[in-house]
Amino acid sequence: MALYGMDNRQIPSSKLLVDCEESDGQQELKLKAFNKHCHYNPHLIGRLSDDLLDYKLIYRSGVEVDVVPGTSKKFTLLEYKEGVGLPYQSLHFGLLFTGKNHLLQQHHALADSLCTCTSCPKQLHKSESPTINPTGLV
Fold this sequence. Notes:
The protein is α+β, with helices and mostly antiparallel strands. It has two domains: 2-98, Ubiquitin-like (UB roll) (Roll), CATH 3.10.20; 109-138, no CATH class. It has four helices and three strands, in the order βααβαβα.
C-alpha cells in the first residue's frame, strides 16, 4: 500500500505490503496500512500528518474505497477480490493524504487566537475578545 500526496501522486519509496484479513473493511484496511506506514515510514508520516483522519483509502484508480466497484455492496477485501477476479497479491490500494483534518486544526488554532466573532457553531473561536473601534471614538 503506497502513500499519495495531496497532488494524487505516489510518494516514492512508500509502497508496503500490508497483512489483512478477508473480512477487513475499509476502516480496518486503512488503519492497518496507516499503522504499518507509521512504523516503517515515520519520516514520510511525520512530513505529512500523524492523524488517521488526514488520509483516505483509495483504489489504484484514485477513487475512494467505500463500496465494491460496480455494486452497492460495502467494501470488504474478500468482496473486492471476488469482484475484480484477481489474487490478493495483485490488489493495490493507497493512502491519500488529504490534510483536511490537519488543515482544519491549524485553521481553528489560528482562528482561536485571532477571531472575535460570536457566531462560531462549535465555539472554537474566542467570543469574549474585545471589539476594536476603527474610528477610535468611544
